[in-house]
Design goal:
Elements (H helix, E strand, L loop, with lengths): L1 H10 L1 H19 L2 H17 L9 E6 L1 H7 L6 H13 L4 E4 L11 H7 L5 H9 L3 H10 L3 E8 L14 E5 L8 E3 L1 E3 L3 H6 L2 E4 L12 E3 L1 E4 L2 E4 L1 H9 L4 E7 L2 E7 L2 E4 L5 E3 L10 E3 H6 L11 E6 L7 E2 L7 E2 H13 L10 H19 L5 H26 L6 H36 L2 H9 L7 E15 L1 H7 L4 H20 L4 E6 L2 E6 L8 H30 L7 E17 L4 E6 L1 H16 L3 E3 L1 H7 L3 E9 L8 E9 H4 L2 H18 L3 H18 L2
Parallel strand pairs: 1-15, 1-16, 2-3, 2-16, 3-7, 4-11, 5-9, 22-24
Antiparallel strand pairs: 3-6, 8-14, 9-10, 11-12, 12-13, 17-18, 19-21, 19-22, 20-21, 22-23, 24-26, 25-26
Helix pairs in contact: 2-13, 2-15, 5-8, 6-7, 10-12, 13-15, 15-16, 18-19, 23-24
Amino acid sequence: MGRLSRWARKFGLARTLCLALLVALAALRVADPLPLEELRLRTFDIYQTIRPRQSPQRPVIIADIDEASLKKIGQWPWPRTVVADLVTRLTEAGAVAIAFDVVFAEPDRMSPGVAAQTYRDLDEATRRKLQELPSNDQVLANAIKRSRVVLGESGQDSADTGSLVKLPGVGIAALGGDPKPFLVRYPGLLPNVPELESAAAGRGLFNTVAERDGIIRRVPIAMAARGDIMPSLAFEMLRVATQSTTLLLKSDSVGIKSVGLPGFEVPTDRKGRLWIHFSGHDVNRYISAADILTGSFDRSRVANKLVLIGTSAIGLLDTKTTPLDPVLPGVEVHAEILENVLTKATLSAPHDAAGAEILAALAVGILIIAFAPILGSATLLGLGAAVIALMIGTSWYFFVQHKLLYDFTYPLLSSLIVYLTLVFGNYFSEQAQKKQIRSAFGQYLSPALVEQLAKSPEKLVLGGEQRDMTIMFSDVRGFTSISEQYKSDPQGLTTLMNRLLTPLTNAIINRKGTIDKYMGDAIMAFWNAPIDDPQHQINACDAALDMLDRIETLNGERQTEAEAGGVPFLPLKVGIGVNTGPCVVGNMGSDLRFDYSVLGDSVNLASRIEGQSKSYGLPIIVGSRTAAAANGKFAALEIDYLAVKGKKEPETVFAILGRAEMAGSAEFRHLSDLNNVMLACYRARDWDGADAALAKLRDAGKAAGK
């Protein structure tokens, strides 16, 4: 949990939030709510508006029951004998197949037998003669038998649709499992009258299912009605025209993949629906039914064509809305379907489209999360424009070149949401960071400095002032050996250093010191700046002793942890060097970045003194001016004259062993006397006397616990 928290802090809360948001947006695409689907469909509508299907070929003709036909022949429904004449004329003109986008669900009320029963003033001979004539339905059935005709039927949401003549159905071959659960289903079916059903070469459903906004974009080309799989009117027409006997449905565990006939395999969505690539309303598809009945039409327009019989008359209410036409005769939708299939121009939304869109959204989102915080606004704007162009261009390329529908709106919307979240997240993070920085400066650079800079921002300029200051350097002894224990766990070494530097820092801050910088395991600090501290030497020595106490406490904790974990324990030890002298303190650096730091010869000497603490085997060594100010307040022993490279005069250095109570003890006075004797012999080159005094000094030190 701690590592996760540290990673989150390093990675950034805003970035972490955006990653979680990306996952949520991916789940949203899988769920595909209505607004997201609507946006995608509207985008595909725009594509079709910009680039409608070009249709130079006219494999389909519509025999149109138009307003002119109704005016000339009469209102619909026409007598079935007239419809029979229409079928006959089209057959004679060379129509390959004929399909009705109408249903003849009831017997013709204008049949001779019906007239014989209806008219009261007929003589008996005429009545018998009318009853002996074939019905209009039979006349139409005979015309249908002499041609290849597909009758339209209507799937019904209600199962109560009356009796149904059971006729041999279309052969269904299912590859990959039962397709019925995925198909558009109708519990009921509205068929034609039995005479016509028995005579027809095929039967297909002319149902077209609009999207939720009422626009026709996809139409099912295979459906389930009354429990049986049935082809659509257009696809059944193709089957009859090609004299095929079987409809092939390919599916997998998640839905339909394609519907096919020999020579035709049409990719569909998971419900068996075909995406129509519309070319728009075209009057050249239409021939007036009245002209066909009178023979005043160009027979070459019908020869070797598929002919749909339907209506464009507004009063018959068979109109649909498509992406290109707000009002389009329903029969022309079937013509568009046939042209799509015959010219291999159908659109297709691949089954992996959602996965590809999610991957695109994740890829772009991750790039935004990775680079947006570190790129300049102009660069980011340029890259954003390039990414948007790439998304739209890729989607458009697949639409134009491969008739594939890949949506760019979801990845684009997802990327925009992630970007805005990152922007606002970083804004709030920066506000929190400013507060944290103020707190951090107060903890690590001295609250007094932070407060002074807050009150006087003009001090945040380059330059400094000369002061008499006390400088401290501290360094961990044997750090290489300690690091070796953590060679496979660098994060553990970082944690250890933080555990060490935190108490050492607190010891300095609590005694009015200012942390100048951290250098790995080393600390540089100073006193008497930015605010005056008359007792800066004493505070520095006191802080040094407190640092040793805190390290001892930390080592005790670490030893307990090591024993519990069964690992070797290496105690932490530090060497501390303190020196007092004139320095320049202030903002050092460049116009782009500067630090509040200290410079001067006294600083260099403090660093050299700290370096010698290891040679003398003592934890705290101070310069002469520091020791002079601390005299009587700390237990200090003179050590040696220290010759520093670059300096002509040697520096007298002292060891700080304890505070005032130790300095006043009899044991320390005895220790100090022996030390003075040893130094006197040493400087007089009385090596035997120095050696004897040193032996006594060691014994006294052991007795005193030092």
